[in-house]
Amino acid sequence: MAKLDVNTPQPIQLKDYTPPAFLIDKVDLTFDLDEDHSRVSSRLVLHRNPDHPDARAPLTLDGKELTLESVKLDGEILDGSRYQTDAESLTIAAMPDNAILEIVTVIHPETNTSLNGLYRSGGNFYTQCEAEGFRKITYYLDRPDVMARFTTTIVADKNKWPVLLSNGNRVGEGTLDRNRHWVKWVDPFKKPAYLFALVGGKLSRLADRYTTSSGREVALEIWVEPADLDKCDHAMASLKKSMLWDEQRFGLEYDLDTYMIVAVGDFNMGAMENKGLNIFNTKYVLARSDTATDVDFDGIEAVIAHEYFHNWTGNRVTCRDWFQLSLKEGLTVFRDQEFSADMGSAPVQRIEAVRTLRTHQFAEDAGPMAHPIRPESYIEINNFYTVTVYEKGAEVVRMYQTLLGRDGFRRGMDLYFKRHDGQAVTCDDFRAAMADANDYDLNQFARWYSQAGTPTLSVRGQYDAAAASYTLTVSQTCPATPGQGEKLPMHIPLALGLLGPDGADLPLQLAGEQEALAGTRVLSVQEASQSFTFINVPVAPVPSLLRNFSAPVKLDFPYSRAQLALQMAHDSDAFCRWEAGQTMMLQDLQTLIEAARAGGELGLKDDFVSAMRQVLADDALDPALVALMLTLPAETYLADQQSEIDPDAIRAAREAMKLGLARALRSEFKAVYSRLQDQGAYRFDAQSVARRSLKNVALSYLAELDEPAMLELAEQQFARADNMTDSQAALTGLVNWAEGDAALAGFAAKWAEEALVMDKWFTLQAISRRLGTVAKVKALMQHPAFALTNPNKVRALVGAFLHSNLAGFHAADGSGYEFAADTILAVDKLNPQMAARLAGCFNRWKKLEPGRRAGMRSALERVAAHAGLSRDVYEIVSKNLQ
Ligand code: PHE
Ligand code: ZN
């Protein structure tokens, strides 16, 4: 286990925040780009910050992995006695209150495999500065509360790097000697350094235009490698939809003359909202119907919207410090979710968001990395771009809207921008705007920002026939999380309805109210335990609770099987309808898991099968909703419901349920498949996507049956598909059988040149129950299309295996753990951020059965003891071992 010594990375605390000693008004940057080094000249106009407690504080600039060439203060070259440097900073003790500082540094993008700062990909130059990458470019006050006006001049070889981009507007260009050229950019908006961007290379552009509602003409440009120019149309259409939506929903317009998106194949995350120059992972830009699935098309629409929406929620109003990350991320995810709901099917989008939250965020909240959406401390900020900060953060923003209503939420947003445009602020400022704009007390609500863990709402109902009243008693608890033993009650919006015996909504009237209202209403739960009494309730109702998933909590209500079946068939709230099915499914899976552990029979219950049959037969239901209702929870989600995880029993149970349903509903699935099979040419719209999703769910069940005729269906679909959705679905069904080998080989041969399609090929095998073994994954790492330096490849193969193949990763001989440790250490040398993501595969270790627990512990200890571990991986493994 890692010992505490002087080299042990120390946590940074929210409570230690102090304003910067200096502020920067203006930055002029000149980049001289070349093959074996690049030179960065920076000219900073600074002044002392009157808000800093010490009026004689030194100036300490952040800087990492920089070769310093010269420092000039107010025109005078400083010799080494006038400043100090160490591995992470440059300090000038004697500073005037106003100064011009000129610094020249040399950096090495050509060997930068961290993909942080300035780096190379496919011969081109790209930057990534959030959170703390700018300090790898030049010495600077690399913190979001220092906002400056940037001017950027880029000089490079004309043939090798013909396109030179940065933030803002292009104001000049010219040629120089030695076949070099320059381009100058000016960004009129103040911004923190994390929003800086530069791109240089051989790129082609898809151009379009957009006119904002106030008449501003905006040039839209998507820059990609020339071979990808035919895959940008969907991204462009998504961008225009996003721009219009933000005007209509929030009154927010774009503010520059140009909006540029650049796609790069080597990227740590999904995309980055740099001012006027977004840089995207190719995965979230490039799509053609034959190369990208419906899920990819949806993802692109959402991420394009997300980055565009950041221009207001993130850039115009930014974060004071990185503890406030959810201020921009939670809010922007909420905005992109609302956008997606408006573009497609709102209930389907909502259910998918809930699935992501439960599968990934609930797990995080229950493990060693649990943290509130505003963390109190971190060792490495890159480890806090989490599902908690993003997805739970979005749920917290959604709860404002649920409590205040859409109009109230809009009033809060308007006030937020009115107060804080151009500022770097905190989550409390956002909450204050919501409270003040609506004259609503949100003091207790603040606990959502400081308490980690998933609360449980326990609800009990009591019907009083004589009084015709129904009383719901609601109690809340929240489990202890690392560093937080005791929790206080949260302010929880509980949306609900009451169903009559026919499944229809009953009118709702709380004791003391004059009239009844139909449909859904929102209760404000604030006490540890409290009761709500409904009056004039003619019959004992079935409560439809947590409608539309009104809060990120676990619900505990003792539903009977018949009540669940009623909700599945009739609940007017699509989320609750789906949820009732999931509850029944989880109950039965739990029974199967216990049977598998005891070596018993793995049969299905009749009421479950007939409820599922009824769902399949319901023509009035959106096919996408039917597909979701038939989708089994992930193995990892099932694991999180266990007190002690037995991966083999979980797999056996899940497969028994799938096969059991396939056998019992064979003819229904066949009928659905035939009815939806022929859809004509591919179209990406909500209806077509819904039909394809149900068809492919039916196929996935049929392919479980060990019958040649069923595999032939998959083979035919694979051979005939004109789109990647159908092609991938067919291949997924086939890979579980020996017949899949030929299809996999054909797929690889066809798509060898398409990096994003090859990612799918790697993932399919990594998560397949037949092929997903340590040996196979290791062999695939030798495939020419694989690269340990490329995050998409590592995620597609290694990440998918470690995070999504429960039984494969947890092979009883411990080989998965040894493989994980070796790979984490190898990736850590190249890209610490990626390595730390992989290391998350150990987060459940304490819940495994004893044999595996011991294996995971020794692998973790081996990683922790490794000399030269990055801060990123150190934080994950040390918190696991605490
Ligand atoms: N801020 C980016 C987003 O959510 C994510 C990101 C973080 C990208 C850090 C790169 C590095 O839109
Ligand atoms: Zn974001």
TrEMBL record:
Q: What does this protein do?
A: Aminopeptidase N is involved in the degradation of intracellular peptides generated by protein breakdown during normal growth as well as in response to nutrient starvation.
Which top-level group of life is the source organism from? Bacteria
Names of the cofactor(s) = Zn(2+)
Known PANTHER family for this protein? PUROMYCIN-SENSITIVE AMINOPEPTIDASE (PTHR46322)
Domain called Aminopeptidase N-like N-terminal: residue spans: 33-195
Q: Which residues form the Peptidase M1 membrane alanine aminopeptidase domain?
A: 235-447
Has UniProt tagged this entry with the keyword Protease? yes
User: Which keywords does the record carry?
Assistant: Aminopeptidase, Hydrolase, Metal-binding, Metalloprotease, Protease, Zinc
Q: Which Pfam families match?
A: DUF3458, DUF3458_C, Peptidase_M1, Peptidase_M1_N
Reaction(s) catalysed by this chain, per the record, are: Release of an N-terminal amino acid, Xaa-|-Yaa- from a peptide, amide or arylamide. Xaa is preferably Ala, but may be most amino acids including Pro (slow action). When a terminal hydrophobic residue is followed by a prolyl residue, the two may be released as an intact Xaa-Pro dipeptide
Q: Which InterPro entries match?
A: Aminopeptidase_N-like_N (IPR045357), Aminopeptidase_N-like_N_sf (IPR042097), PepN_Ig-like_sf (IPR038438), Peptidase_M1 (IPR001930), Peptidase_M1_dom (IPR014782), Peptidase_M1_pepN (IPR012779), Peptidase_M1_pepN_C (IPR024601), Peptidase_M1_pepN_C_sf (IPR037144)
What are its E.C. numbers? 3.4.11.2
Q: To which protein family does this belong? A: Belongs to the peptidase M1 family.
Domain Peptidase M1 alanyl aminopeptidase Ig-like fold, residue spans: 453-557
- Is Protease given among the entry's keywords? yes
Q: Which SUPFAM superfamilies match?
A: Leukotriene A4 hydrolase N-terminal domain, Metalloproteases ('zincins'), catalytic domain
GO molecular function list: alanyl aminopeptidase activity; metallopeptidase activity; zinc ion binding
Q: What is this protein called?
A: Aminopeptidase N
The regions listed as transmembrane in this protein's record are none
Q: Which GO terms describe its biological process?
A: proteolysis
**What range(s) does the Peptidase M1 alanyl aminopeptidase C-terminal domain occupy?**
562-881
Q: Which gene encodes it?
A: pepN
Top EC class for this record: hydrolase
Origin organism is Chitinimonas arctica
